[in-house]
Amino acid sequence: MPRLSARVHLPSGRVARLSDEAARRAAARARTPDVRPGGCMEALEILEAEDVARTDAGAPIDVRGLSLRDFHVLRALLVHAGVQAEAPAELPCENCGEAFRVAPSNLLEIAPFVDAELDDPELDAPFDHEAVHGIPAIRVGTELARSIRIAARTVEEALPLFRAESAPTRITPALVVAMGITALGRERRASAIAKALAAAPDEAYQAVADCLYEAHYSARLVAVHRCAVCGARNDLDVPWQREIPYEVGEPRKARRAFPDLDAFEAMVTSAADRIYRARGVRNIDLVVDDGVPACDDGGEPLLGCYTPGGTDATLGILRAPEIRLFYRTFQAEHRHDRSFDVAAEIDETIDHEITHHLHHLAGDDPLDEEEHAVIEKEAIRRIGKREAARRAGRGLASELAGFMRTTWPLFVIAFVATYFTFCR
Questions:
Q1: Where does residue 84 rank: exposed (0-12), middle (13-18), buried (19+ CB within 10 A)?
Q2: Whole-prediction pTM value?
Q3: Which of 157, 208, 365, 401 has a CA that sits 20 to 30 A from residue 21's CA?
Q4: DSSP per position, 398-422
Q5: Would you state the pLDDT for residue 310?
Q6: How far from 149 is each of 111, 124, 145, 175, 207, CA to CA, in Å?
Q7: pLDDT reported for residue 59
Q8: What UniProt keywords are attached to this protein's entry (predicted)?
């Protein structure tokens, strides 16, 4: 079990000094009744205990005065170190459906918080609490609200939300205020906003919850689990249980249905005929694959892929080059993104794979190199530059040790041969 990091940097720029021993002593004490293990109130009790959390200057941290973003990082670190318990999540892989069981906090990358590398323009961007943020329509009285405004909240201001985290989900005016929702469309009354959210369709409410997560949680509080079967990347919230309810309201209203396999294949064939002519290519096999999608090196399920043709000096062409589109990836993107344009994405995917084909014929594929560079850059963004360097160093040392383990007899033979040659 890892120890709680002694000195960490928080999203606000604060530095916190943490005591692993004091935190474990505090966690072992009797909890307040009705406090959920692994929850926000338990984390608050631990962090407020004597000597657990101090400023860089050594003064006790006013935990209740912290922003929610700072507090949730500290809570995630407590769970990651095992100070707070976390029940494993049992989930299906989003790509192949194979079940897996994992404690998400065990996979959290904490190096950026330890190494002060919280400067990524996307992962560490501050949330704009003054702006309005677009959401799917929610009926508020006689109007439809399509925007939300979320104010910053401290731990003290969010206590009603913390105290309700183990209770049945019900949106009340007090919880609206604790979440920081100050406007839903033109409505500013907490009672009216609570009523509207309680009756909101799933898709709209979940967009609100996503916005609240973005406002009050660091984007770095995500663990990546790679499926052992298909290699797909599954992103998991850390901590896995959060105080903001993600599912309330009525069943989602029907959306435009995704094309069935036959209709999808017809769309692909039509698009390919048009794009092949425009790009001046032919004799590239086109396949619609409705099985488990392949993944890139980063674990992202592919919309499409290109496979070069194979040739033989005696037999000639063994197989034609191939463009393959993955039906289930398109289906998943359509399900997760209400703005996903299936026809436009089919066009873009086919055109993209033709570009790979033309680069292959030219003997160099800079697009492939660019895609691998993006994957590598994304990995470094998540784990941090210093941690990436440390892992590279450990990998080199491991390879060197393995090389020495397998080749030492050769060195001994060479030494003995040299020795006897010298003696002669």
A1: buried
A2: 0.84
A3: 157
A4: HHHHHHHHHHHHHHHHHHHHHHHHH
A5: 80
A6: 32, 20, 11, 15, 13
A7: 96
A8: Membrane, Transmembrane, Transmembrane helix
